[in-house]
């Protein structure tokens, strides 16, 4: 192989790597966006779909809505306690990375200005208490609260 071509083969992934790194730095609470994307693909998108659109019957969309939970009392805790989040087989730091990524990736417009990204410690605490059957009613109550904040958003 010509040396020039070899140099190109080495340089291209490096350039791509730099681009990903720059992207990562831009998302609060996400120390590894590549890891988050991979974890989402493996652990979440089977239900929530690759583009976060969910489906019409059982799996809710993330796109354009998930950050609205952060704007109502109890919503922050709810996100850390839904079974899909709380019981996933990922360590706390990777899960915090993934949840923050999910919020900014799918619903940046609704992230409250004073949002503090989830930390591994907070996620670790919330997930110890996963929601069970009461989750449908809890979710419905939170979603009803969205309407009240609608005019402010
Ligand atoms: C087996 C399907 C399934 C998987 C896998 C799953 N979820 Fe969910 N998710 C749901 C359902 C259903 C709800 C609605 C609450 C409930 O009934 O659990 C939900 C709710 C949520 C919510 C709260 C927002 C809302 O609209 O209720 C977030 C945030 C969330 N999921 C993120 C994730 C993340 C991140 C992952 C991957 C680690 C994941 N989910 C994996 C099915 C799933």
Keywords:
153 residues; globular; binds heme C
Q: Would you tell me which CATH topology applies?
A: Cytochrome Bc1 Complex, Chain D, domain 2
Computed Rg: 18 Å
Sketch the topology as an H/E string, one letter per element: HHHHHHHH
- CATH architectural grouping: Orthogonal Bundle
Largest beta-sheet characterization? none
What does the overall shape look like? globular
How far apart lie the N and C ends? 58 Å
SS elements, strand count: 0
Work out the helix count: 8
Query: What is the assembly state of the chains in this entry?
Result: single chain
CATH superfamily: Cytochrome c-like domain
Ranges where pLDDT stays below 50 over 5 or more residues in a row are none
Number of domains: 1
Which percent range describes the beta-strand content?
Answer: under 5%
The CATH class assignment is Mainly Alpha
Bound ligands, named by name, code or SMILES: heme C
What structural class do you assign from the helix and strand content?
Answer: mainly alpha
Could you provide a short overview of the structure?
This protein is mainly α.
Walk me through this protein's architecture.
The protein has 153 residues and is mainly α. The protein has a single domain, classed as Cytochrome Bc1 Complex, Chain D, domain 2 (Orthogonal Bundle). The protein contains eight helices and no strands. The protein has helices spanning 3-25, 33-43, 45-48, 75-81, 83-86, 92-106, 120-126, 135-150. α2 (33-43) crosses α6 (92-106) and α6 (92-106) crosses α7 (120-126). It is globular and about 65 Å long. Bound molecules: heme C. Heme C is lined by residues 43-44, 46-48, 58-60, 66, 69, 79, 82-85, 88, 98-99, 102, 135-136, 139.
